[in-house]
Structure formats: structure tokens, C-alpha cells
Amino acid sequence: MTTPTTTELFRDFVMPTYGRFDLELVRGEGTRVWDETGKEYLDFGAGIAVCSLGHCHPAVTKAIADQAATLIHISNLYRNRSQGELARRIVEIVGLGGKVFFCNSGAEANEGLYKLARKFGAPTGRYEIITFANSFHGRTLGGISATAQEKVKIGFAPLVEGFKHVPFNDLAALEAAIAPTTAAILLEPIQGEGGINPATAEFLRGVRALCDRHNLLLFFDEIQCGLGRTGDWCAWRSIVSQGVEPDAVSWAKGIANGYPLGAFWVAERDAGLDDEGTDRGPLCNLLGPGTHGTTYGGSPLCSMVGLTVLSTIEQERLLENARKMGFYLRSSLESLNLAAIRQVKGIGLMLGIELNDLPAKESDSSTPALRMTKELMREGMLVIPSGERTIRLLPPLNIIKADADEALSILNACLRASADPES
Ligand SMILES: Cc1ncc(COP(=O)(O)O)c(C=O)c1O
User: How far away, in angstroms, is 400 Cα from ligand 1 center?
Assistant: First the structure.
């Protein structure tokens, strides 16, 4: 009997939910990954903004090994020190008091926010959450209902009730959409899957003011943009440094460098009155015993990895590096003056290159973003498409200038060639 190839194993046994690239990766170190033939790639996707410290960072590997040899899992019926420490670190990072709940993924963190909105609004008959065009909030039923992109919803009706979508960065449309049933507003300060679209400072200020005026909760989905990627722990503060504070924030992806972990933080603000007119106390205590939970969330192992990732970002001064390298990449890309580039978008190391229409071979009906991603892959660089015409650069936060220069040289060659009809 012959041993099946990985391609054959995937074809025969793995559900076909992903449009995968024809690439099998076997090893990673820092900003590099290698395929099964030994070919090396510069990884500017980092697992879609997950591996903020790069692949197999020694501190992460050690934390996993040490904790795995000590205590991997206990149930959430008991306390564990690292969950408490990680919660405290996140509360410090946000800097507004409040408390944290741990889960396993981004979609699951957002599910917690949806439940929080409903619990908050229940005494006054409010349950609706407003989200924004081109957003992405995950693949659970709640997540696809919250996501304002038709393509994720097709075939899954009936969706979860109570989500309304309005155009992004459009305060007038948002104000018009607020109804007596509205409980919360959920937005990504920088939209990741929808094409790297930052919220404007004016929009964030306006949304906060509308939430205050109508007593709505303001939720930030920082699953892709948060925890250092923009050069600030909190992506919204890279847009407005002061005066716009959320009522809850969700994270996943970069929080534990690839070890599955999600979290959401909830503010201390007053939760208002219950049906009997009694004060419900702080919002961060509203989801009380029996209201929410998960088996794995905040285990000793994932919490220790999360703590290690956050402390390594601090020790290695990676927020500063993300700002510096992000600026360098962005300004270098802009100064290349390439016909293939419509604009460079984003903040810090969450960058999007929006492509112009590129000449394509007649047989190739794929989007400009997909074509460019494949071209770059052939040349030894991994990026992530975002929407139809944007490629995302989401390298590890510890990239050095030599990595950035190598990426710029590959991008320059591929983008130049793509705009040349003769190539
Ligand atoms: C902004 C945002 N929210 C939610 C999610 C869902 O996270 P997960 O895939 O961990 O469920 C993602 C994933 O891409 C995301 O980018």
C-alpha cells in the first residue's frame, strides 16, 4: 500500500470548507516558513495576524513546554493563577477597570458580546446590535448574522435575529438606524477581512457620542487589529488617543501567537436597572454564574501562553517596532509609485495594498488580490488577500528592516511585472 500524499489526505478526508492554496507548510522560525520541498517563504501573513512574535518564538515554545509539564487543563469550576494574571494584564492594557472572560476563538469572544448586549437591553426590551458594511465577526450563526457581508450568510437562513448593518464611517446612516430596540453597536476599528479599512477619528468620536445619547453599548472587535498590531495595545487608540472608550472589546488571533485563545473585556460602567427597578451593578458583573461559560477557556496552558506573548511584546518593545516598521513599509511602498497600486491603507503592521485592475490571462477569472497573492507565493512571500483587490501585509511584530527590505523587493518585482501586459 502506498502512503497517501497530504494533498490526497485533504482531498479524501478533510471537509472542503476552505479555498486552500496549493502549499503544504512543515516548519517555521521567526518570519520564515518552509514547505515540504524545503522552499523558504517570508511570512507576511503570520497565520492571518496570529503569530505576532513570529514562528516558534523561544519564549512561547518554552511557556508551552513548561506549562504542559505542570498543569495543562483544569475545569473552570476551579481557579488557576495564570488566568487571573492574564485577566489583570488585559485590564491594565485597556486601563479602564472592568473584567475579562476567556474563550477559544474570535467568533466565540464575539458571541459573548452579543449575549452581553441582550442581557443589558433585556429590561428595556432592547436586543438589536448594529454592525457595519464589509465587517467580519466570525463564522458561528451569531457571527455570520453580525457580519455585514452577504457571501458568509448564503444558505444559512434563518439567521440570528437582531442584527442591522449600515455603511462604515457614515455617522448619519448610523444615527438613522438607531431604533428603540437597539442595544449596542459593534465595529472593527480597522476592518480586516473587508479590505483593511480604518475607522476615522471623527466616526469613532461620533459613535461614542451616539452611544452615550441613546444609552447603547459600544463594542470593539479587536480580534485582528488589536494587541499591538497597529503599534498600540488598543487599535482604537491608534486612531483616537483619547476620549473614545468602549464598553467591551473582543480579542483572539495575536493574543497567544497561535495557541487557541479568545477573550473579551467588559467595562465597569453601571448596567442600569432590572425589571424591578433594582440597580444591576457594574456591567462587567452582568454575566453572572450560569449565564455563560466554556470548557477550555482560560486553561492554565492557554493563559500562560497569553501572558508570555503579552510580556514578550513589552520586553522586546514591539509596539514601537510595529509603528516604526509599519511606517517604513508604508512609505517605501508609496514611494515606489507603482501603477499596480491604487493605495496603501492601514496602521502600523496592519497594512493593505489596494490593487488597480491588473491585466489577466483570459483563462484566469480570479480576483486581482488572489492573483497577486499566488504570484508573491511563487516568489517566496506569503500575504493574505482581503476582499477582491487588497492584499494584506500582517508580518510578525518583531520583523527587522532586512525582512521589510526583502518583502519590498519581492513586492516591487511582482507588482511591476503584474502591471506589464507583456509579462
Ligand atoms: C475582526 C474579526 N473578528 C472575528 C473573527 C473570527 O475569529 P475566529 O476565526 O478566531 O473565530 C476574525 C477572524 O478573521 C476577525 O478578523
Answer: 27
Omega before residue 158 within 30° of 0, cis:
yes
Q: Is the CB of 300 under 6 A from ligand 1?
A: no
Considering 315, 342, 364, which residue would you say is the last residue of a domain? 315
Mutate to test the pocket of ligand 1, among 50, 224, 227 (most ligand atoms within 8 A of CB): 224
Domain span holding position 114: 61-315
d(CA 313, CA 251): 16
> In this structure, are 276 and 336 located in the same domain?
no
Give Cα separations from 335 to 345, 379, 411 (angstroms). 14, 22, 13
Report the number of distinct structural domains present in the chain.
2
Are 220 and 325 in the same domain? Answer: no
CA distance 230 to 349: 6
Q: Examine residue 423 and state whether it is found in any structural domain, yes or no.
A: no
Question: Does 323 lie in the same domain as 247?
Answer: no
Catalytic residues: 136, 221, 253
Ligand 1, atom nearest to 193 Cα: 16
Q: Is the pTM of this model over 0.90?
A: yes
End-to-end CA distance of the chain: 44
Query: Using CA atoms, how far apart are residues 50 and 109, in angstroms rounded to an integer?
Result: 15
Which atom of ligand 1 is found nearest the CA of 138? 6
385 SS3 class: strand
d(CA 375, CA 365): 15
Whether the CB of 45 sits within 6 Å of ligand 1: no
Q: Residue 394 C-alpha to ligand 1 middle, in angstroms?
A: 14
**Do 155 and 34 share a structural domain?**
no
Q: What is the pLDDT along the chain (423 residues), one digit of tens a residue?
A: 799 999 999 999 999 999 999 999 999 999 999 999 999 999 999 999 999 999 999 999 999 999 999 999 999 999 999 999 999 999 999 999 999 999 999 999 999 999 999 999 999 999 999 999 999 999 999 999 999 999 999 999 999 999 999 999 999 999 999 999 999 999 999 999 999 999 999 999 999 999 999 999 999 999 999 999 999 999 999 999 999 999 999 999 999 999 999 999 999 999 999 999 999 999 999 999 999 999 999 999 999 999 999 999 999 999 999 999 999 999 999 999 999 999 999 999 999 999 998 777 767 788 999 999 999 999 999 999 999 999 999 999 999 999 999 999 999 999 999 977 555
Q: Is the C-beta atom of 224 inside 6 A of ligand 1?
A: yes
- 172 alpha carbon – ligand 1 mean position (Å): 27
Mutate to test the pocket of ligand 1, among 131, 137, 394 (most ligand atoms within 8 A of CB): 137
Q: Which of 315, 331, 354 is the last residue of a domain?
A: 315
296 and 249 fall within a common domain: yes
